[in-house]
Fold this sequence. Notes:
Blueprint: H1 2-13, H2 15-23, H3 25-30, H4 36-44, H5 47-54
Helix pairs in contact: 1-2, 4-5
Amino acid sequence: MAGLLDFMKRLGTDAELAKAYQDNPKGVLNDTDLSQAEKDALLSGDLDKVKALSGAEDVNMTHIVITSFEE
């Protein structure tokens, strides 16, 4: 359970990982040691499954990416 929760925390704090996940979620997940059920839950966006597999009751899922471009 800690693996999924740790991965989700890293997605929220590691900009490079978040960008890679945005571009290729399956590829990023294939490079983790998460179980197939955990990977499937994240990819499906099924919040109830993610909560159950992570052990965290207070899980919220968003998919917001803020990008800054310099001119």
